């Protein structure tokens, strides 16, 4: 089972997928995220997939479904950290994921929600 970490940053849930997900893990992630969006009133979800070397068709569809579910709860989902190889593979499979926003990094994704990650201050 893959480990996923979820933290809240100023009304945005940041989900870091730290290893390959089984289909069961992906379904559980969709359920857990939808529940957390509703319970905390999140306005956005960032899903960091930078640790993934492969995104298969099931996970791609699940990411699309997560975006649909969270949208119904007034939150937007942005996938961040997609590797070039993953993007190429998804296009080759015909999985362009219409309606799912992406960003290159967590900082870029957070900026889409009007937030930023503060740099550590000097001397702190």
UniProtKB/TrEMBL annotation:
STAS domain sequence ranges: 2-113
InterPro entries: Bact_StressResp_Reg, STAS_dom, STAS_dom_sf
PANTHER family to which the protein is assigned, alphabetical: RSBT ANTAGONIST PROTEIN RSBS (PTHR33745:SF1), RSBT ANTAGONIST PROTEIN RSBS-RELATED (PTHR33745)
Protein name: RsbT antagonist protein RsbS
Organism whose genome encodes this protein: Prauserella shujinwangii
Classification lineage: Bacteria, Bacillati, Actinomycetota, Actinomycetes, Pseudonocardiales
């Amino acid at each position: 089972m893959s480990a996923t970490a979820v933290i809240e940053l100023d009304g945005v849930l940041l989900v870091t997928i730290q290893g390959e997900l089984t289909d069961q893990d992906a379904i559980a992630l969709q359920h857990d995220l939808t529940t957390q969006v509703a319970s905390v009133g999140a306005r956005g979800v960032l899903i960091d997939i930078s640790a993934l070397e492969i995104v298969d068709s099931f996970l791609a569809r699940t990411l699309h479904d997560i975006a649909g579910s969270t949208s119904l709860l007034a939150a937007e989902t942005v996938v961040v950290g997609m590797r070039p190889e993953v993007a190429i593979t998804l296009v080759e499979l015909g999985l362009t994921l219409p309606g799912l926003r992406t960003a290159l990094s967590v900082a870029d994704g957070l900026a889409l929600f009007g937030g930023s990650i503060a740099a550590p201050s000097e001397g702190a």
